[in-house]
Structures are given as C-alpha cells and as structure tokens.
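We were asked to recover a plausible sequence for a given structure. The inputs and outputs are reproduced exactly as logged, with field labels preserved.

PROBLEM: sequence recovery
POSITIONS: 151
GIVEN STRUCTURE:
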C-alpha cells in the first residue's frame, strides 16, 4: 500500500483537487487498491470547510466529482510514503514540522518535465491553470511510480 498525502495552504482548492484527480487516474488505470490517498492543509484557515465551489466546478467540467472537508496535517499524515505539496511556500511550512522526514516531501510538479509551483487559484482566480498543473503533476507522479516499479 502506497500512502500519498497532498498538501496545500487551505485544503479547499489545490490539495483536494489533487486528491480527486489522482484518485480518478488510479481508478481508471486499475491501481486504486494499491493506494491510500488523502489531502490536508498547512494552515488552520479553512478547517471544516468543503472544497471551494470554483474548484468543484472546475473538476466537474473535467468529469471529476467528490467531496472533502478541510483539515490540518497531523502525525498520521507524516507517516505517508509521499507528502506532495503544491508550492515552495507549502514546502517550507511542511519542513518546519519537527517529525517530518524530508525525503518524503516533494512539490507535485517536480515530477513533471517542467518543474514548477501550482499557483494558488485562491489568489490567481485561475482554476483551469491550477487544474492543468495538477493533472500534469498527478500523471507524472504516477509515471514515476511505474518507472521505479513501486506499483
Ligand atoms: P488552497 O487555497 O491552499 O489551494 O486551498 C487557499 C484557500 C484559502 C486560503 C488560502 C489559500 N485562505 O487564506 O483562506
């Protein structure tokens, strides 16, 4: 079982989008039973909130549905095999956690051919670009696991 935790600042836009996009990819490719996938926030800003409506609408446009309630990263998440953050700011925040194992933490789009941050659509209002970055990141991460015979 490979445990994957997606992390962003609020856990209402990018990380739940990543969770649902990745779950959709592994379901379509028949890998669901090999994974435990979740998402969480570095901050406490949005604890208890559902996925932001614009993120849900963007996912729906691409045929992906699902729900999530925002929560903050906890000690169980730190035991994940992969802690995939969205941007450099999330990376810095996660590495400040005392018990963190640095080698588990990666920026999602560092698995792509064009390493980059997933810009925060909360501020950019560009949910389509965030979706495309997330899809590229999730596909590239899955390919990384296959190439390295981890699945
Ligand atoms: P996310 O976006 O980190 O992609 O979930 C944000 C959502 C909420 C806030 C910041 C970023 N906020 O400041 O409340």
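RECOVERED SEQUENCE:
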């Amino acid at each position: 079982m490979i445990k994957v935790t997606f992390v962003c600042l609020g856990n209402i836009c990018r990380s739940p989008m990543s969770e649902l996009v990745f779950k959709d990819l592994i379901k379509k490719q028949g890998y669901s039973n090999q994974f435990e996938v979740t998402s969480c926030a570095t901050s406490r800003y949005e604890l208890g909130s559902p996925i932001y409506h614009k993120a849900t609408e963007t996912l729906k446009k691409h045929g992906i549905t699902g729900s999530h309630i925002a929560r903050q990263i906890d000690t169980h998440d730190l035991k994940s095999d992969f802690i995939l953050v969205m941007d450099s700011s999330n990376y810095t925040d996660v590495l400040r956690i005392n018990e963190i194992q640095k080698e588990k933490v990666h920026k999602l789009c560092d698995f792509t051919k064009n390493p980059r941050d997933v810009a925060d659509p909360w501020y950019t209002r560009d949910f389509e670009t965030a979706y495309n970055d997330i899809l590229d990141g999730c596909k590239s991460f899955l390919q990384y696991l296959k190439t390295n015979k981890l699945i």
